[in-house]
Design goal:
There is one protein chain. By secondary structure, the chain is of the alpha/beta class. It has one domain: HUPs (Rossmann fold, 3-Layer(aba) Sandwich), CATH 3.40.50.620. 49% of the residues lie in helices and 20% in strands. A 5-stranded parallel sheet has the order 3-2-1-4-5, with helices on both faces. β4, α4 and β5 form a beta-alpha-beta unit. The longest helix is centred in the middle third of the chain and has 30 residues. It is globular and about 55 Å long.
């Protein structure tokens, strides 16, 4: 039993990737790992203000991840693992994959319009150096198709 890693945020494509990973995990007796990433703040404020802003960003990421985990649990009956990390997204994902060799696939969703998204762009250009397969779901893919493909 391996894990399917999903990077979660508030986008539709992240929710679609999570749904795919959940269905895939159900079909293969695997599990889902949800990773929420908090981007470092790019400005300097007074110490207390900076700390408050950073804590609010972390709290928001934790709330998004917890909500996503609750949705997975209500649909699949299995609670996914949750991790929240602060830092540069592509570095955090690479480090996470190195630290967790039981991850069978990194599942990402591409935006339905415009550029596919920073993680999709980064990892699709570096698939040869990943320790696991990269799955990219098209943003325009219907939920029914996500379920059909994941269960096949």
């Amino acid at each position: 039993m391996g894990k399917y890693l999903v990077i979660i945020d508030e986008t539709d494509e992240a929710r679609k990737a999570l749904r795919f990973a959940m269905r895939w995990a159900q079909a293969s007796s695997g599990s889902v790992q949800i990773l929420a990433i908090v981007q470092p703040q790019n400005f300097n404020a007074f110490g207390g203000v900076q700390a408050t802003i950073e804590q609010e960003a972390r709290d928001r990421a934790e709330a998004i991840a917890t909500s996503a985990a609750g949705n997975v649990y209500s649909e699949s009956g299995k609670m996914p693992n949750i991790a929240v990390k602060v830092g540069e997204a592509s570095r955090i994902v690479r480090d996470y994959l190195t630290e967790h060799p039981d991850v069978l696939a990194l599942v990402l969703g591409a935006a339905s319009e415009g550029p596919p998204g920073p993680l999709v762009s980064h990892f699709s250009a570096h698939t040869g150096s990943l320790p696991c397969p990269l799955v990219i779901l098209p943003g325009s893919m219907a939920v029914e198709d996500v379920d059909r493909i994941a269960g096949a």
